Amino acid sequence: MNSYICFLRLVSNMLNLILFGPPGSGKGTQSEKIVDKYGLVHLSTGNLLRQEIIDKTPLGLEAKSFMDKGQLVPDEVVIGMIDSCLEKQQDAKGFLFDGFPRTVAQAEALDRLLQFKKTAIHKVLALEVSEEELVTRLIKRGETSGRSDDTDEDIIRRRFAVYKNETYPVSNYYKEEEKFESIKGEGSVEDIFNTISKSIEKELAAQNLTE
Ligand code: B4P
């Protein structure tokens, strides 16, 4: 199916996806390609928080103290941020949530926010990558990104511990709703994107959003 047809079909119905996975699993990398092909609105809490830091807002200053230590930013801060983004995007054909939800409380809040818009999450695509590969990727990104949370291996390892304790349980939340799908996140960016595209197109077909 070509992306133009996909885009047109989405006008009459929303498609809401979550890209899930540990730090450095390629969520940001794959998100760019997904929103480009399917015309979804990209909501990355990591990007939104980094922009708040650049703008030196009070929210950004609060967030920075957590992010620099490899911790999660408090739920109420992140949920409030997503709420106001959803409000501003009344005409969206659908959303791609990247790096959100990261706790079960965030997942529950997202369900409530989408219910308010008379829609829901349709699919959670989870990128699976080994921890050693993740560390290698993040240290490499740290050499050029200037991100303070990528340069120190201890902080990177702390982010994985936070992922296991606080974020991994979110996968069970969506498994119970039968919305969860694992995607092999190692290999070339293009091959991973092809697998993701196949899964999205299956979902579009299931929703009768195909030709
Ligand atoms: P995020 O911005 O979400 O970033 P991330 O998890 O570190 O990385 P991502 O998975 O997007 O990886 P990328 O594509 O860049 O979070 C940063 C911080 O913000 C969190 O630690 C937390 O403090 C805070 N935060 C964000 N959301 C929050 C929330 N909801 N609640 C609370 N706190 C929150 O890829 C990584 C690297 O790998 C790149 O260099 C890329 O080029 C490379 N790469 C990608 N795909 C590859 C492939 N197939 N092969 C080889 N390398 C690849």
Main features:
211 residues, alpha/beta, Rossmann fold, 5-stranded parallel sheet, 5 strands, binds BIS(adenosine)-5'-tetraphosphate
Polypeptide structure, described:
This protein is an alpha/beta fold. The protein has helices spanning 3-10, 27-38, 45-54, 58-67, 75-88, 104-116, 131-145, 148-151, 153-167, 169-176, 189-206; strands at residues 17-20, 41-44, 95-98, 123-128, 180-184. A five-stranded parallel sheet has the order 2-3-1-4-5. Helix 3 packs across helix 4 and helix 5 runs parallel beside helix 6. The longest helix is centred in the last third of the chain and has 18 residues, at 189-206. The chain is globular, with a radius of gyration of 17 Å. The model is unreliable at 1-12 (pLDDT under 50). Residues 21, 23-29, 45-46, 49, 66-67, 72-73, 78, 99-100, 102, 106, 137, 141, 149, 159, 189, 192 line the site of BIS(adenosine)-5'-tetraphosphate (B4P).
